[in-house]
Amino acid sequence: MSVAALEVRGLEVRYGPVRAVRGVDLDVAPGGVTALLGANGAGKTTTLMAAAGARRFAAGSVTIFGRDMTGADPEAVVRAGVAISPEGRRVFASLSVEENLTVAGAVVPDRALARGRRAEMMERFPILGERRRQLAGLLSGGEQQMLAVARALMSGPRLLLLDEPSLGLAPRMVDRIFEIVEALRAEGIAVLLVEQNAALALEVADRAVVLANGAVAAAGTPAEIADDALLRSAYLAA
Ligand code: ATP
């Protein structure tokens, strides 16, 4: 079997006395999409941030494309081929679309490559090309989400950590965002997809992990998770 894009084992994260993540195991196959599901506060974002090197953890391991990245800092995780599109998009509101992409491209040492990728992003997401000179803060939520994904792609990742991309978006934009996830998968980019919208996430994923109170409540194929009525009513609000 080829080496996993992401392998998390026995992850424990605490906020003071709160055990936010408790013994979580998680895999993303190379070029695969794993959906990380669960109610508000279940520990999804904390797990994703720990995998990104942005959250210290008390125990467990993180392996990225076969390399032990336990305790590595975010820069090292980026160099290992990982990009993050954070919850709430976090685009620079007072910079233009193009400037947002330029800033994200600063991690690419080859300037010509960075410029080429920026042009590629504006072709790939035509609305960003049309609005290249517009301040990112003036974009709609869906457009900002596209910009957040485009920024993440500027580093040329092999694994994208995508946190709540559909949150607060109009249905048409939600569809568009999920089309983008499918396109990434078709290109061989692996995705860890944190989502509140379990039904849609299960449509694009090939693995799913459900968290409840910081622990894994269930893991399996999307069909296994979707068919479990108890699980659905207890944790997925679907
Ligand atoms: P959401 O969908 O609301 O973001 P989530 O599943 O991503 O939820 P987390 O944000 O990872 O969950 O939160 C897990 C638990 O850790 C929650 O109980 C939350 O209140 C707590 N928590 C998260 N961030 C912090 C923090 N910075 N300090 C203290 N507790 C935190």
Automatic annotation (TrEMBL):
UniProt-listed SUPFAM superfamilies: P-loop containing nucleoside triphosphate hydrolases (SSF52540)
Protein name, UniProt field: Amino acid/amide ABC transporter ATP-binding protein 2, HAAT family
One Gene Ontology MF term: branched-chain amino acid transmembrane transporter activity
InterPro entries: AAA+_ATPase, ABC_transporter-like_ATP-bd, ABC_transporter-like_CS, BCAA_Transport_ATP-bd_LivF, P-loop_NTPase
A single BP term in Gene Ontology: L-amino acid transport
Origin: domain of life: Bacteria
Family classification: Belongs to the ABC transporter superfamily.
Keyword annotations: Amino-acid transport, ATP-binding, Nucleotide-binding, Transport
Ranges where the ABC transporter domain occurs: 6-238
Alphabetized Pfam families for the sequence: ABC_tran
Residues annotated as signal peptide: none
Keyword Transferase: no
Gene3D superfamilies according to UniProt: P-loop containing nucleotide triphosphate hydrolases (3.40.50.300)
